[in-house]
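Internal ticket - ligand job 351, pyridoxal-5'-phosphate:
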Amino acid sequence: MRIASSVEKLTPYTPGEQPQDVDVIKLNTNENPYPPSPKIKEVLSSFDIDKLRRYPDPVFNAVRKRIAEIHGCEIDNIFIGNGSDEVLSVAAKAFVQNDEAIGSFDPSYSLYKTLAAIRDVKFVSSFLNADYSWTDPVISKDGIDVALFLLTNPNAPTSLSFPKEKIKAFASSYKGVVIIDEAYADFADENMMDLAIAPGNENTIVMRTLSKSYSLAGLRLGYCVGPKELIEAMYKVKDSYNIDMIAQVVALAALEDVEWMKANAERVRATRRRLTDELRSRGWDVPESQSNFIFAKPAKRPAQEIFNKLRENHIFVRYFPGEATGERLRISIGTEEETNRLLDCLLKLDK
Ligand SMILES: Cc1ncc(COP(=O)(O)O)c(C=O)c1O
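stdout (structure tokens):
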């Protein structure tokens, strides 16, 4: 048996736990607490099963057409992946050569580092300031150029957005490809989609997912919008049929009901406000989140202790050890009822 040495030494990405116990209040993977559009039920119940004999549309034209309408671009500007995680891995194949690097901020979405290890290229971190504010990205290190910079905005797990002028100035001066990962943009006050469709843009891609705001993490569908040349390169290296037929049908139904998604995002934002204000009034440090989660520092007890105690009480949140993140908990925004139970439990634990 022979395993590639890059894989042998690889530390795999650790996704948040998916407990089978239905009694758990699950605030650990930034899923949406509200159901997806009822239009999905309609299309699934009328879906002609016989169609499954055939392969799906390899370039998902119907879904791309709808995404193009939503963002005011052409279908040639759009690539779709089996979750935005797949969009990222396709980008790592398309835009990075063996002697180049992938870069991102730190802390940020931890999958990026794993992606570089899978691709067997160097990873370059750009460490954020202590308050998680913007720092100029490192674009070259030890003579190796960062060919692909993955910029999460709003950032995870910090929950904060970076100033648009900073992102814009960086993207326009950068020689590599920048992917602005907007997994959480529907919960934010502003987004960067206009940078992806701006005339003359040659290197900026904006990525979205249906996993969060559209309540479809189980579907696995993410997409990105960018310059035609870059998008074309992504099609060259993707799997032949990366989006199955049912996912295409469901995604289309969801994308035809943007209003449903927006209403849910609004409910999440309202609960985020309430949770933030309540925890602040108890002395917690809660930065002003632009996402469907908060990244909060408990008032009295260490974050890890609270994490463990919450778990014992069947409330799952996320804890990331380490200097830059270890004092905080990432807590996804749940329903009003879940938030009440979380707040009640925290009242007892953080004394
Ligand atoms: C910043 C960021 N990007 C991408 C993803 C992955 O999304 P998807 O479910 O579309 O693969 C996540 C998931 O948590 C995320 O936090």
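Auto-summary: Residues 30, 83-85, 109, 152, 156, 181, 183, 209, 211, 217, 222 surround pyridoxal-5'-phosphate (CB under 6 Å). The chain has twelve helices and twelve strands.
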